[in-house]
Amino acid sequence: AQSVTQPDIHITVSEGASLELRCNYSYGATPYLFWYVQSPGQGLQLLLKYFSGDTLVQGIKGFEAEFKRSQSSFNLRKPSVHWSDAAEYFCAVGDAGNQFYFGTGTSLTVIP
Amino acid sequence: DTGVSQDPRHKITKRGQNVTFRCDPISEHNRLYWYRQTLGQGPEFLTYFQNEAQLEKSRLLSDRFSAERPKGSFSTLEIQRTEQGDSAMYLCASSRKRVQETQYFGPGTRLLVL
Questions:
Q1: What is the widest separation between alpha-carbon atoms in chain B?
Q2: Is it the case that residue B28 has pLDDT exceeding 60?
Q3: Tens digits of per-residue pLDDT, B77-99?
Q4: Is the omega angle on the peptide bond into residue B8 within 30 degrees of 0, that is, cis?
Q5: How much of chain A exceeds pLDDT 90, in percent?
Q6: Average confidence (pLDDT) over A80-104
Q7: Please, what's the b/e burial string for B41-76 (b: 16 or more CB within 10 A of its CB; e: otherwise)?
Q8: What's residue A30's pLDDT?
Q9: Which residues on chain B place their C-beta less than 8 Å from a C-beta of chain A?
Q10: Per-residue confidence band for B101, with pLDDT thresholds at 50, 70 and 90
């Protein structure tokens, strides 16, 4: 069955520091992978997605993610975090029927 | 592009009452999805429509839950005889009818059952 694991429930980083949020998935076929961000009172916003091709994908707000098939991972990175990046981040895998399976999320706190 | 909208944004009800939520998808999107999100969890799939046809329902969707999309445009999610365990954020998303399509989410309806 499809599933997504986000091992880090909560991460705290200093503003300007680099960030990496981990995501591991379980899916039998070629996965469609997504990262969404959810700010308080806001809907889920797509940061980036991977379907095929280049395993390093660029997204909005300076985020990128790398698909590693051998590790079943799709980790999200940002070289320099801004205070406005504080939010909840969700990794999701989509199946052939376009049904999404979300991880439990990682809450990011940014300290000055 | 007006995005996905949901109404109401918040709902407080007493246990045993019925509630209905509405979702208006992005106009050209064929597919519409309902998710439930509880505190500290990611969204969990409930059901989805392709045009007016309800194609899949999760086991999470008990017989107290019913969803419709009568004309293939907006959708409603009704919960009958609400229980305290129904308290959650109910999210709606829409996408085009293709594999690999991004789902665009609405702001959600937060339900509190007292």
A1: 40
A2: yes
A3: 999 999 999 999 999 999 987 76
A4: yes
A5: 76
A6: 90
A7: ebbbbbbbbbeeebeeebeebeeebbbebeeeebbe
A8: 76
A9: 4, 31, 33, 40-45, 48, 56, 91, 93, 95, 98-108
A10: confident
Write down the pLDDT at residue B72: 85
Round the average pLDDT of chain B to a whole number and report it: 92
- Which of A43, A45, A51 minimises the CB distance to B100? A51
> In this complex, do B106 and A97 lie within 8 Å of one another by their Cβ atoms?
no
Indicate the helix (H) or strand (E) that contains A105.
Answer: none
Burial (CB < 10 A; 0-12, 13-18, 19+), residue A46, is middle
Q: Over 80: is that where the pLDDT of B102 sits?
A: yes
Closest CA to B70 of B51, B47, B55, B45: B51
The beta-carbon neighbor of A90 closest among B42, B93, B106 is B42
Pick from A43, A97, A104: CB nearest B42? A104
Asked if A43 is an interface residue toward chain B (Cβ–Cβ < 8 A), one would say yes
Residue A71 CA, chain-centre distance (Å), reads: 15
Q: Cα(A105)–Cα(A3) distance, rounded to whole angstroms?
A: 13
